[in-house]
Amino acid sequence: MKTKYSRKDAMERAYELGFNFEREYGSCPQCVFAAVNEVLGVETGSVFKAIDGLAGGLGRSGNGTCGALAGGVASISHRYGREEFRNLGQREKCMELAKKLHDRFMEEFGSIVCKDVQKKIMGRSFNFWDPKEREEFDRAGGHTDKCPDVVGKTARWTVEILLE
């Protein structure tokens, strides 16, 4: 995979874009996906829209996979996933790279579950469906620096994996 950046610069640019996208727009999976694909010069197409519901641990439930990780895996799958059932393409490569991102995420955050990641980075989890808790999340830096850092790191790792 080619990029106009050096490997190191591509990784740092992905972090910066992911961080800023999350801070400004939210939707962690979309922010990782957009950052990775912008750095690598890949069109996002309809995948960008399709992954929005994965934000906040799936529909803001907090109970599912962190949306940042989901966005990174979507970026990997966008490049290496199968295009139809009968065409396996580079599916094994896709699974290998997705697992590599999973393992790196686990190493950093100790879990892939959104609520667990929130506890790790903010000391507690938040119910995004409760307006008061969403305000507390924002006051705690949820969209200022905490989740943007998770998004930035995940975008960086994804670019690193895709450029290997």
Summed up, what is this model?
The chain has 164 residues and is an all-alpha fold.
Rg, rounded, reads 15 Å
List the uncertain runs.
Answer: none
- How many domains, in number, for the residues? 1
Assign the structural class, choosing from mainly alpha, mainly beta, alpha/beta, alpha+beta, or little secondary structure: mainly alpha
Total of helices: 8
Mean pLDDT reading: 95
Order of helices and strands: HHHHHHHH
Helix percent band:
55-70%
Content of β-strand: under 5%
Shape: globular
Oligomer: single chain
Distance between the termini: 8 Å
Q: How many beta-strand runs?
A: 0
Largest sheet: none
Protein architecture, described:
The radius of gyration is 15 Å and the shape is globular. The longest helix is centred in the last third of the chain and has 22 residues, at 142-163. It has helices spanning 7-24, 28-40, 47-50, 67-80, 91-109, 114-122, 131-139, 142-163. It is 66% helix and 0% strand. It contains eight helices and no strands. Helix 4 (67-80) packs parallel to helix 8 (142-163). By secondary structure, it is mainly α.
